[in-house]
Every structure is written in C-alpha cells, then in structure tokens.
Amino acid sequence: MSNIEDVLRNFRPAPPPEGFWDRVQKGTLPGRRPGGRARWAWGGAAAAALLFALLLALVTMPLRDPDSLPPQEALRRIRAALESSETACIKFTLEPDPLLPPPSLGAPVLKTGAVFLKQGNKLNLSVQEWDSRDARGVPATEARLVSDGVRIQRCLLQRGLSVSTEDAKAARIAPRLAEWFLRAGTLFSWPEVVDLGSPEQIRNLQAGPDSAGARVLSYSAGPVSVTLWYDPRSYKVLRRVLTSKAIGTVTETFQEYEFNEDMPDSLFVLAHAK
Amino acid sequence: MELMAIVESRTLESLWRRFGARLILYAAALVKDRSLAEDVLQTLFVRLLSSGVLPPADAEATYLFRAVRNAALNELRARSRARRAYSSLLEPDSQDPRAIAELGELGRRIEAVLLELGQDEREAVVLKIWGDVSFAHGAEISGVSEKTFEYRYYKGLSVLKDKLGQAHE
User: In 3D, which of B150, B16, B62, B153 has the Cα closest to residue A8?
Assistant: First the structure.
C-alpha cells in the first residue's frame, strides 16, 4: 500500500483563495447571494463586475478546448461574457503600490469595492477608500456610480456625507465597461477619472506562463502594462495587475463573483428617486 | 456586521496559515465542492474570531478538523445550492515546472477517483494523507474507533490504487 501513499503524497492541498483571511477579519460571512440592501451596502467595484459578467457569458457559450485558445480568442471571450451576461456581481480589493507614499502623505491604504451589473444598462458600482487595512467603520471616501437604465448618477461621499452628485444619460454600459476594463481602465484613481469614452488600443497581447492552474494574459494598453489571470475552465478573471509610471503597480483581486443570479431592481435606483 | 476582535487575530491567523489549505481540502472531501468548502471555512473562522474561542493548544488539529466536520455536515444537510464552478482540490507538491506539468493529469485523476470513494473512506484518506493526522486523531475527528478509521483508510487506498492503477501503471 505504500506505493499508492507515495503517489498521493506527490500532491498537496490546493492553497486557500486569495483574500480569504481579509474577509474573515472583516467578519464577512459567505452569503454570496446578491439579494438585498445589505449586500449592496458594501458598495462595489466595476471592473470586477465586468469580469464576472464576462465569465458568465463565456461559461454559457459552447466552449472549445481552452488549451487551444489563442490569447486573442481568450480575450474576446472574456469581453463577450462581460457584455452579454444577464447579471454579474463582483467584489474586489485594490492594493496600492507599496512604493507609493504612506497614508500620512495622502495615499489610501486600501480600496474595496463591488459591482452589480444587469442587462438593460443597469449598474451599481461603488468603491471605498480606507485609511487602514482592517476596512472597518466609515470609509474615508466612497464613490458610487448607479444607473437605473436611463440615467446614470455619480455620487461622492466623504466620511459618509455626500459632497457631490452628477447625472448623465446611461447608454451601452455593459459593452463600454467591458472595453474599459480590458483596455487597462482602473478604479484606482476613481472617482477622479472613469473615462469610458476613449480606451487605449491593446498591443503586444500574449499568453504568459500558467500560474497555479490559472491562465495568464499580458498586454499593453497605452502606457499601462496589464497582466491578467483567469480560470481556463470558467474564464473567470481572478486577478489583474496594472503597471505604469503614473499609478505604479496596482493589484486587483476579485474575491467574489456570481453570474446570472436574481438581482433586484432596487439595487439600481438613483438617490433622488428613492 | 460589527466584528468584535476579542481574539488576537494574529494567533488565529497563524492557525489559519498552518491549517487552512488542509482544512479546505478536508471540507471539500466532505461536501464534494471546493467553493462550498471555502464558504464553510470562512463562516467557521469568522465565528471563531468573533467568539474569542481558540482551539486548545494541545489539540489544535483535532479541534479544527472536528469543527470543520460539524460545519461541513451541517452545510450538507441544509444544502440546496446550485452547482458551482469546479476548482482544483490538489496541486503537485513540487516547484519544478516539468514535474508540475507531468503530474497535472494524474492530479485530476486522483481528484476524480477520490470524489467517487464512499464518504467514510474519502474522509479517512484525506485526513491521514493530507490532514497529516494520526490514526488515533483521525478516529477522534471522525467519531469512530481507531480500528474502524484504519479500516476505512486502507479500504479507500485500495480503491484508489485499483482505479488509478488502470491508468497509472
């Protein structure tokens, strides 16, 4: 029997998911259903939602052997999923460059966020900036972007108090968000800059070496170098790292994602209409 | 949820770092779903952190595996969830890319056969091989006699050997 034991001992348990301990420290229970206000209250991040929608769409379409997919096709599927999934819910963490100035000089310690995306141009995205890594209490800054399908509203809060709102017409949110995400759009500078209008061209797209079961794509979009990890079976984006002189190195980790689950329209009500 | 971190988080965190991967694998072996296993562990550790209860120092592994077992079986009973995306349970224990590539397919076969085992045998194999517990502690965790646990373990190995042998030998 020792032989089979030796064979088995060539393997070890797969590592826990990234961000697990952070969620424990925040007291977050796993309830991943996007069903209520409590969930929406956590706020959210757009890029992650897009990724998830993308993943869903990919999962629902007939897949060829993922091993044979060239990077262009993998990226296309990611984009198509984001654009076409019925709903997507994504939670993420943005880790700033450790070489940036310390918080006392103005840089946030941590950003968290969530994105809820629904067909019909409906979006609920929020990002919180935290002064400390435990992300407890009221965030230093929170930015929200909510679309009810017709109008889109941007709202900025500091220490929980609204300081500005801005309305615009909502149009083609899912495709623009997918494009923005894949072309190196980042929420790290949000709310100062979320420009969905003129994304950079993708250049030098190539598949990187696999990492712990995840596929890797790397490419450039304008001045930003992007490395993107995704699950080759589900096409879920697992992590994204963006590097440029302007932003340093920003790591986005996607902790939660659900596709095509029931998502109440109460998530997508503009502030003045509530 | 306001979390009262009565427990010094680094202490519980150190337990997590030591046992986390093994506990997830054990939970996954019980519920046959890696994502669900992660949920079980997350719930358990949130509760441990907020309750201030730390495993006894002289029986950390037994306590944690036992707690995971209770939580996983409760989850199974209450379970009415949609099937989740597949995630790997095992990975090659090597840093050599060539060895990792060579072992990849075998790892998937092992996972598949492991999940086909009866739950008792699967639990015993996972606890003993990857949980790194003794027969005595495995029996205590599973709530059976040491002899029964040992029987389940060797029966599980035998089935694994037979099924893997067809492709492996």
Answer: B153
